[in-house]
User: Fold this.
Amino acid sequence: MRSVIKGASYILAHTPDMVVQNGTTQTTERVVNPESEYLSNLPSHLRSFDDCLAYWPNQVYIGNKLPSDLEGVQFPYYDKKCDVTSRYGKYGQMMPEAELYLLMQAVDVFDLIELDADFVSAHKSELEANEAIDEGVMSRVKDGVSAEKVSSLIEDEGALGLYLDGKLVGCCKRAHEIDNNLSAEYMLENLASKATEVLSILEVVKKAGISKEDVDYVIDCCEEACGDENQRGGGNFAKASAEIAGLTNATGSDARGFCAGPTHAMIEAAALVASGAYKCVIVAAGGCTAKLGMNGKNHVEKGLPVLEDMLGGFAVVLTPDDGVNPYIDLGHLGRHTVGTGSAPQNVMQSLVYDPLEAAGLEVTDVDKYSPEMQNPDITKAGGAGDVPLANYKMIAALGVKKGQLDRKDIPAFAKDHGFIGWAPTQGHIPSGIPAIGVARDQILAGNWKRLMVIGKGSLFLGRLTNLFDGVSYMVCANDGAGMESQGVSDEEVRGLVAKAMKDFAATLLAQADAE
Assistant:
């Protein structure tokens, strides 16, 4: 059996106040240099929600524009307005900060988020009008508390403030007085990730046209960790998000692999479906507050708006082969093994060329490659260059060495087989998976045959190993072969036998009547 991609969703939550209050670059700066010029100038470099709606890469992310449309926009993008400014797109939506706070309170089951009653009254109807939010979520929104109560929780009990346009509108409480793993900082980080993951799941259920009851497994692949001092990182974001999203028949677990996490999770999900263990699996992740404004200093210094002001999220539905939707080729996976090493050539050999050679393919037989899809508007200003382009040049250079490309073809390879990055720099969010939605559409339309998704991770960040990490898989056009090879179940066999016996009996009766 093969597993197919039934649908994908992508969401963004605009969080300018969280950039100031919760992004690691900013929280560190307040400790090291609280009177810094950067912190003073930061508020004047924050974008409005309307600015974000008119930002080209954001509209590509939620599906109102194609990556190929972005190629026609002169770089840089931050000063160009997109002609589409809708908050809702083919794959998902952009959510303003006020709605996110209400959603964070709705997904909180331990009364950690407290919102000002006036704030709730002013914005509750906005969340209720959201196309993805259902009655189950809205029933969890509380009326709120007094402004005095919010201030008291911050001043006396170590809560972290939630702000809107610089005004205090709520707070996130700590979950334990001593355990740092349950501090207000981590609770806020985890609830923001959970809320954006829930929104992604609600969107993908609609986009894929499935019933919530159909989902029987969820895999979360964000970069956060939840647990107390006895089991930091024990999880389970997946099951917690499934609960709020109303996936009553689902269980689930978390997969972690830094930026490679989503690619590991997609392979695991595809294998679970192909094995028959589960019939409908959702791979999902919410955003990362720590990475908000990560390159903020560089952006402010260069006179740019702070472009890392969006929490990202995504969800992908995998089901058994239906003979139509593109399938994940589990027979030809790329693997960065323990013995691969970290040399760029070795990495690309293991992740790109090994699976291609095993499948009898050359590098040009894949229509598009999706490695790290970071938006170059963000990374170039931050000093990291154009990350997707660097990957494509590396793939092409190795292709030249193997005699599959001419040296003069390297620039054309990046254009013909690559994408310009459009995803926010949220670690796991850009890692290959942003291209799933558009690739599924293009494959179903007959324009593409294959997409290779490449996930790479930096395991040394965990201070347990110096190893690099990475896996890859191909999404392929469905030729119907998987349906033919699936065979039939015992129940189906019994049904076929019963029908054959019934037809045979009917034939005998007809013959008897004729005599």
Notes: The chain has a mean pLDDT of 94. Residues 258 and 463 are 13 Å apart (CA to CA). The longest helix spans residues 184-208.
